[in-house]
Please model this.
Amino acid sequence: MILSDLIGSEVHDASGEALGRVVDARFRLEGSGTPSQARLVGIIVSPRSATSFLGYERNAVTRPVLVARLLRWMHRGSFLVLWGDIARIGTDRVELRPRYERLPSALESGE
Amino acid sequence: MKSPTVRAGRILDAHLHLLDRQVLDVDDVPVTTVDDLELSDIPVDTDLDGVEAPVIVSLLSGAVLGTRIFGGRPPSTRWHRVPWSSLVELGTALKVDAAADDLEVSWPERWVRDHIIARIPGGRHDPE
Amino acid sequence: MKKLFAVALGVLTAIGGFVDIGDLVTNAVVGSRFGMSLAWVVVVGVVGICLFANMSGRVAAVSGRATFEIIRERLGPRAGLANLGASFFINLMTMAAEIGGIALVLQLVTGIGPMLWMPLAAFAVWIVVWRAKFSQLENAAGLLGLSLIVFAVAVVMLGPDWGELAHQAFVPTVPASEQPSTYWFYAVALFGAAMTPYEVFFFSSGAIEEGWTRKDLGQERVNVFVGFPLGGLLSLAIAASAAIVLLPQAIAVTSLSQVVLPVVQAGGTIAFCFLIVGMLAAFFGAALETTLSSGYTIAQYFGWSWGKFRRPAKAARFHLVMIVGLVIALGILLTGVDPIAVTEYSVVFSAVALPLTYIPILIISNDPDYMGTEVNGRAVNALGLVYLVVIVVAAVAAIPLMIISGAGA
Model:
């Protein structure tokens, strides 16, 4: 699967309601190999815009303050959905399980 | 700054940390940009219960840049792959363990070098 | 002692390299029509370019990443490509203006041309880009460009009414013979001439060419904060010389002949010789910088190998882009278009494109992933935000002002 097939896909919950679009994919490095494998942890869904802009909405950069605030406001409402909560992936469409969990999409500082 | 090693525990977001990043060869020579990622196969349009999450198989570049901008999908033969297993460092740029000339993805550079630049006098010399 | 020499070289090169045909022509035109009443724009522009160049130099030295890589990484491929298109197009215009300028100077000296000189000038630029070491090319053009100090000497020798000049500068008013829209149009043009984007591409890529690291930041700061303001003073001297000689006689600047008139009037043939050397060096240096910038922007966006520190065979596409760029620039000139006109448009479009380059740099210089502990301080960010507003206002106002004022007619 190519990543850009996934990014931009519409996301629906189990009842078919539209939740937004996939704006990013989160991976965790695991395993003792060199290099470690990058396994998909979940997808970032945003109800607002299909593109991430400048990364402000999730990373630790907080300055310049005005720009950061503006962009965080533009991207408010984005959340992380873990792999286990994804029911199926189709062409341009992702369906979530009935009791999926909305996790905060912000990366912890230092990551 | 974070450590650039590719070791277990790090969290990466594709857009924030991988896509559009510079790929450097073992001598820090720029090779290409990461235009897309190839993930291991997962079943399409079927329930994913019990299916393991995919891993990144390779970095993609080349024709995929056009499709990322304009949409569509090039046939898999047109992609240039840089295997994930060749990654050595993952900082603000991605470093691989091969020399640029040995990578499939560098053929446009080699072509221009062999057919144009090397034919102009002085092309192969260091600047004086 | 060696350190002092290196510092002096850096500063002198920055001064000599500051003025290009855009600065020369725009300041001369402004001086001849508005006196010193737009001097404040030069000051604003110089502070801006100091801020901007310092940020981009710091980013390059600390993170090792050059400007256009960062633009692509931050804006994504779509916005980055639009940015690349605009920047490359304006860069091409500036290349044509500088090469045209070289030809015009040679025409001034020999009476022949300028079309005859253009292919020669373009070829000379290419040969130097192809073979010369980066530092040699910078140093030679910068030091010879210092000859332009003859403008400052001329201003003093002309024995002007300093009080009058100061009054024009510190109490700026729109002269009775001009419209406010024309005044503000030239303000934008002057701003674009001072803050040309290629300066930043060149400066930050140059930092990587010369292998700058954190240790070199001190030197970099001296180059920028001493060299650029002194270069700005040179711009003001050009405007002053035009204000003293051309303004009272309502002489319009339509070619280099009017630009050199005040210097010739003040110092005769000797001054003229210095001026010729200075202009040739300044324009040739700027032609080299814009040509290299055309290579840097495209190669960095696409992730290709680049750099003068690599032999051409190891940065093949980078050199190919520059060859193609020079051919296109030459083609533009050989259509017979007036290089002075190209110059005047290029500075206005530079002002329009400025936000595209400035915003990513401002953002990255705050990002600890790239900068570690060298992120912007509060003062720099405050100033940076002020200039963000100024730059965006200038960019948005440029085209409307150009239309209303008839491009300063």
In short: Helices of chain A lie at 3-6, 65-74. Chain A has a mean pLDDT of 81. The CA atoms of residues 12 and 95 of chain A lie 5 Å apart.
